[in-house]
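REVIEWER CHECKLIST
Item 1: Sequence provided? yes
Item 2: Single chain? yes
Item 3: Sequence as submitted:
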Amino acid sequence: MSTGKSCFFVQFPHPGGEHNPPTDTMPWNLDDHRRKFLRAPGRYLDTDGRPASAELVFWGEWEPPSRVVQRWPKSGRLPRALHEPYWATPLGTGFRQNTDPWIWGENMFYSCCKQVVGPERRPTSMQSLSPGSVICFGSTVDRQFCVDTVLVVASAEPFVAADAEELHANDAFIACTAGSIASNPDDVDVKFTLYRGATIDEPINGMYSFVPARRADHKTPRFPRPHISIRGLINPENRQSTWGSKRPLDLDAVRNAWIAAREQVVEAELVLAVSLDVPPREQPAAPVAASARNRC
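Item 4: Structure as written out by the authors:
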C-alpha cells in the first residue's frame, strides 16, 4: 500500500577515473577527485541476504593517504591498484580534497558535494532531501551508469565545516571530510546539510545504505563497478548534474527503485557491504603540500 509520503531518488554522478599513483604510498590528494579500489574489514550481506563479516574489496572515494598493496595490468573496467586506506592528522592549512560520500563507520554520510553553486555558494536542492530518499553515487563508464555507493537518507542536519567538532561523528570524518571542506576558504563558513545513512540495523521503509563489494579472499577479487539501469530514474548520459533531487516521488516508488538497484548489484555477483571499519589513524601527522587549488 502506498504511504503517500514524498521523497527522492537521486542519480549522483561523480568523477569516475581511478587513482593510479606512481609509488606505493599515496599522499593526500590535492588534485581532482578520483576513485580507489579499496580493502577494509566490514559487514556484508551475501547473495542470499545473510549477514557476515570479512575483509572486503570495493570501489570508493578515499582522498587521505593510502598504501598500494597490489597492482594489476590495465584491463578494461577492472581496477589497476588495490589500496589500504589510513589517515593521520594533516599538517598545513592548504587545500586538500575531502572524502564525500563517507562510507565508513556506524553510518554513511553525505555532506557537501554539489550542495552549493556559484561564487556566492548558493544552496541547491541537494540540501533539501527528505528521510527515505535514496542517492545513487556513480559514474558513467562506456555509456553505462556504474554505481559505487547507495545511500538511503535516515536524517539530515545543517552543519558548518568550521564547527565540525560539534557533530556527532568520529574523528576520522571530522579530519578527512569536514576538516578538508574547511581547508577551502570559500567553504569554511558555508552551511551544508549532513545526511546520515540508514543502516541494516535501523532501515528506513526496509531500505539501508550499501556499497557493492566482494570478499577479499574471492578467487577473482577485483571487479568493475556494476552498472544499474532503472527506467526514468537513471540516465547514463547525465555526467555532471544530480538528477532527481527536484522530483518528489512516493516512498514506495523510491523503495522499488532501491530494490532494483540492489538486485542488479547482486546479479553482478557482488555482495552488499553495509558497514565498513573506519580506516586506522597513524602517526606521525601527514604533511599536506601547498596547493593553488581552493575549491572542490
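Item 5: Key structural point noted by reviewer: The mean pLDDT is 92.
Item 6: Recommendation: ____
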